[in-house]
Amino acid sequence: MMRLLATIKIAVRALLRNKMRTLLTMLGMIIGVAAVIATVSIGNGAKAQIEAQIASIGQNVVLVFSGSFTRGGTRSGWGGAGTLTVEDSEAIQREIPGVVVISPEVRTRVQIAAGGENWNTQILGESANYFDIRQWPIISGAPFTEQDVRTANKVAVIGKTVADELYPGEDPVGQVVRVKNVPFIIVGMLTPKGLSVQGADQDDLIVMPYTSAMKRVQKATMLGMILVQVAKPTLLNTVQQQVIDLLRQKHKITPDKDDDFTVRTQQEIAEMAAAQSRTMRLLLGAIAMVSLVVGGIGIMNIMLVSVTERTREIGIRMAIGARGGDILLQFLTEAVTLGVLGGGLGIGAGIGASRLLAVQMNWPILIPPEWVFYAFVFSALVGIFFGFYPARKASRLDPIDALRYE
Question: Which pLDDT does position 178 carry in this prediction?
Fold first, then answer.
């Protein structure tokens, strides 16, 4: 143990002889480790936020979208064409076992006004079950009812952003908001949700009965989407296939034709989002690993220079009894010290950069402790790997030739 401590002291003293060169050598490791920590922290934070947003869709939900990726040989995309009807949603509710509740949906953006204020926002037409499906509680007032849906009443529930813009400092419940010059009474306000993963404001919306949205606002006859909640998770795939079969039958789609709708389960959406997030993390991680390799090459380069500069010192040590293993250990310790110091500073820089991004860009971060440990160990391994060749070269010098070296 005493011998190892003495070796470390000599290594530190050797590195401090050229402080600037040592710092520049460690810079590659600092940047590489910082990039790894920042990448993992931001990636994990984004993953957690995506999972939270997928969960906010509700529990055990199947989503039926108008339009298909392949209809007519074109990629129209979800909601790209109005192909779903209210009758489709009623048939799903009526004919498919395991379906608990549904919410037909239409959506658009319009200009709204109240008093002397106006605002452009998203309008969602939904059923009275929407708030239960989405597990989105009302913070003030009450949701609209099934009776409001049947009679296409002019009532609405608003998000926090709309309330702040139109009724600053006031209780919006009971107030009147004009949607395309149609007066709607606000019956409730939703609990704030904040920004989505894409940075969209989830509270900038008005939810009203889908019948009211179709007849009074959008003048539409087709739905954009249908939310379907099933009784338990094990029924999701079964209900998904039954919805596909039912809609193909109702839309009279022959076996040789593509669907004019898209059906996805909550798990599928979560898996797609997770796959995209994983791909991005791997890409950023690969870039960070390149930085670590570059840092390791820098360590190898400077250790080779150090061996050349200290050839006479090596010869003197061997002449007074140092063995090849002692020289190998000495230079390997210096390389590992460079890697560990660079890794430690990189961990601090990575955590600092992650927190700065979280504050400046309102981006969630999640720093896993095990990755801090992995980064520290990996930086030491980089020092060993890239320092071994120069250390081995130093240990195999001939003492006589080393003493003659100028």
Answer: 95
